[in-house]
Amino acid sequence: MDYFQDAPLFQLYGEQSDWPLGEMLHCETIASRSRLHHWHIRPHRHTGLYQILYLHQGLSIVSLDTARPPIHGPAVVEIPQGYVHGFEFGDDSSGYVITITQTLLTHLARRLGPGAAPSPHPVLRQLAADDVHSRGLHEACTQLNAQYAARHPFREAQIEAWLTLLYTRLRSQPAGAGRSPQAARGLRHYTRFSDLLEQAHKRQHTVAWYARQLGLSTTHLNLLTRTHAGKSPLQLIHQRLALEASRSLIYTSMTIQEIADDLGFSEPAHFTRFFRKAAGQSPRDFRLRIRFAADETV
User: Fold this and answer.
1) For an engineered disulfide with 123, which of 78, 90, 172, 178 has Cβ 3.0 to 4.6 Å away?
2) Would you say the pTM of this structure is higher than 0.85?
3) Domain 187-297: CATH architecture, name and number where available
């Protein structure tokens, strides 16, 4: 069996639907999901997501491709997109799992500057229980989880603040573990494609343009994205464009015409057809539904 190829490709544990439009981060306790699966999360991989596991206490066997190192809390595991991973937790384990979209992670790392780039390979870091750094990570994870679960004014600002603090604490420490032994060589190219797509998605370049920028053939690029994301390059281009459109509809007062122009559509009607196909409803209906849902929670 090709372990990497056969591992399920999930957006989140056990979830194969697309990441909800506009949602950039997910935070939960280890127990909230693992208990449902008898404390055993089977090997799988994520597309477009970076995952941070903070094990506060307890034991976990971490599957990274064919490696299965044990860790004891407190410990941190960082897993970039595309890597096969799974967990077996003791039933007394506690901690948090933070899942960040590649879009948010790229934005955060650029804002923080040199030295903030996420690790391109899995990182396992064992911590000392009485260490100041360990206590700081525990506080940041606990507060991030509390703000994520809350529904109060300034929720997003507080989430961003605690995520930034958590991430800077992770990057200020030397990486403790190395590369997954069967990590796909093409993952570096796929990461470069993801970064380029993040920079250029509003210009609506063709797949051939992206391939040329990366020094790859369109066939090779198609193989890479299907291997690491389960989608074609064109599907990922459209997915990123739809995400940007949804964010503009949710978080700005731009008109449909203005959003269409900003995203490179020649006509608002072209944008409406594109968005309806991607989201299952028109831009206007999507905006109204989101605003109605927000009003209901106030």
Assistant:
1) 78
2) no
3) Orthogonal Bundle (1.10)
